[in-house]
Amino acid sequence: MMEMTILSGKGGTGKTSITAALSGLVQSAVLCDNDVDAADLHLILHPDIIEEHAFASGWKAEIDTSKCKRCDICLSHCRFDAIHTNAAEKLVINPFQCEGCRLCERICPEQAIRSEQYTNNYWYVSNTRFGTLVHAKMGPGEENSGKLVTQVRKKAKEIALTNQKEWIINDGPPGIGCAAIASLTGTDLALIVIEPSKSSLHDADRLIKLIESFKIPVFALINKFDLNLELSQSIANYLKTKNIPLVAKIPFDKAMVHAMINKQTIVEYQPNSNISKEIKKLWHKIQLSTHTIDLHPTI
Amino acid sequence: MPYKIAIASGKGGTGKTSVSVSMQHFIRKQFTNQVQLIDCDVEEPNDILFFPNAKKKNSKIITQRVPKIDKNQCNFCKKCADYCEFNAISIIPSIKMAKVNSSLCHSCGACLVACEQSAIKETEQPIGLMNFYHEKNHINLIEGELKIGSAMQTLVIKEVKKQASKQSQIILYDAPPGTSCPVVETISDVDFIILVSEPTPFGLHDLKLMVELLKELQKPYSVIINKAGIGNRDIYTYLKQEQIEILGEIPFDQEYATNYANGSLLKTIPQKISKEFEIITDKLIKRVYA
Ligand code: SF4
Ligand code: SF4
Ligand code: SF4
Ligand code: SF4
């Protein structure tokens, strides 16, 4: 079994549309949406949820004002400025600022502070027309610490092993922070989607530096490559210096948006379009290369 | 006090950066030079790419306090590990191991309070940079840049925001994508939020998540529809239903998109786009002085 994560540095490069198209091509796969913060893959795959699980995020502290003597020890110890006075001069905690370190609870001499565990996150196992999808929904303002990403990936792996699937396809989160790190740890391959813009190349460069630290084989594709041929060429050159195979150059076509509006993948919407052909070719190249690269080198 | 506006979007790629950079440009043109832009998208800061003439004035390292355990003082009582809610400390008495994993540490200081042996001291570890860029002698842009591999974006954002000049009349924050803590940190103290969205199913879905968050935070906001003309009308129906103000619509324009790609966004702005931004800026200024 192989696990591939599709990433892009930043959102909006067409990563999810491409992941969806690949989902339809890969036979024998479990699909996994790692962008738990702004999950979009379900908009194309329209999953039938068969399992729903709550996922505990961190703690949030709360002050019982009837017990509080205003010694202000908690106030001076909270490093996240989460404790404030309200209009009535009572101390209150802002749940959006509280990191749940529980220090205030432990040091309050009056035992006036209690912490509660929030379960504002959910993850799901669903059926789709392309197989099982594991996805999640994070409560607004939650900490995207990567724990929820790790949880969905764990479930996807379990399902893939039980059902003897050959692939896990992860739609990755944007950025290079906790969620992206949690999305890459232990995967076999990464596929990066880059657009021909300076900002996209800049983002991809930071992402590639992160991936290099994981020593995972990387492939790249340029989406909407014909929007700026000059920049596409510099991206291709850049990839060459990094020894990253450029596996597809996908043209700009409004059909991509129309497919999305129709809740279809581009391969379903226009199977004979250039985009669909490129995506099929790209998948073929990745499959071929997995026979030759050493995925689990012994160090 | 400067008036603070955050430009946010729920997800990346909707044009948040181009709106942020353009807003600064038009506010300057129509209203005041005292407008600073702060790039709070610290995982992938991009605003600087649109200021080809800007010079980096200086950079400062942003650090995080990470505890260090002095094994000569430590009696391996494990109290610090019990206090650490983030599993950053491992103590194994039998082999005299006492270790802090800095990538899990949130710098809360709980372990320091826990330790009765005064065995813990804090050290400063770099987690990012703030970069100050100059154009025509005033600071135009302050950028936060998360160190690759660090997971402390919220702290980097907090530090960068402190750098804005109090003399500014308006401060613009270019927010990170998503609806999780880095966004909350960015918008926590703002007076107004501009949500940038695009008229596609993805755009609408992510906008709804953002609206849900802003309702909880009870912050005032309105929406700019970017790339108007692509996609469908669902977003308009939603905004009408929810009675959310549309601050403006930026039409999709091939030339503008190409300028964006090249980083030469502000060099030649197509007429129909600059007109729209002028109207948006006027509306905003009215709000600032309401
Ligand atoms: S430490 Fe306890 S008693 Fe003191 S101010 Fe805080 S909540 Fe009140
Ligand atoms: S739990 Fe930690 S972050 Fe939350 S209020 Fe208490 S001290 Fe502050
Ligand atoms: S500072 Fe807080 S998070 Fe860091 S090791 Fe100490 S208790 Fe854990
Ligand atoms: S609390 Fe202090 S003495 Fe106890 S294990 Fe931690 S560092 Fe060592």
TrEMBL record, chain A:
Domain 4Fe-4S ferredoxin-type: 59-88, 89-118
One GO MF term attached to the UniProt entry: metal ion binding
InterPro entries tied to this protein: 4Fe4S_Fe-S-bd, 4Fe4S_Fe_S_CS, CobQ/CobB/MinD/ParA_Nub-bd_dom, P-loop_NTPase
Keywords assigned: Iron, Iron-sulfur, Metal-binding
CDD domains reported for this sequence: SIMIBI_bact_arch (cd03110)
Name listed for the protein in its UniProt record: MinD superfamily P-loop ATPase
Organism expressing this protein natively: Ancylomarina subtilis
TrEMBL record, chain B:
Zinc listed as a keyword: no
GO function term, MF aspect, one: iron-sulfur cluster binding
InterPro entries cross-referenced by the UniProt entry: 4Fe4S_Fe-S-bd, 4Fe4S_Fe_S_CS, CobQ/CobB/MinD/ParA_Nub-bd_dom, P-loop_NTPase
Pfam families named among the record's database cross-references: CbiA (PF01656), Fer4 (PF00037)
Domain of life: Bacteria
Keyword Magnesium: no
The entry's keywords: Iron, Iron-sulfur, Metal-binding
Gene3D superfamilies: 3.30.70.20, P-loop containing nucleotide triphosphate hydrolases
Residue ranges of domain 4Fe-4S ferredoxin-type in the record: 65-94, 96-125
PANTHER family given in the database record: 4FE-4S CLUSTER CONTAINING PARA FAMILY ATPASE PROTEIN
Protein name stated in the entry: MinD superfamily P-loop ATPase
Native source species: Ancylomarina subtilis
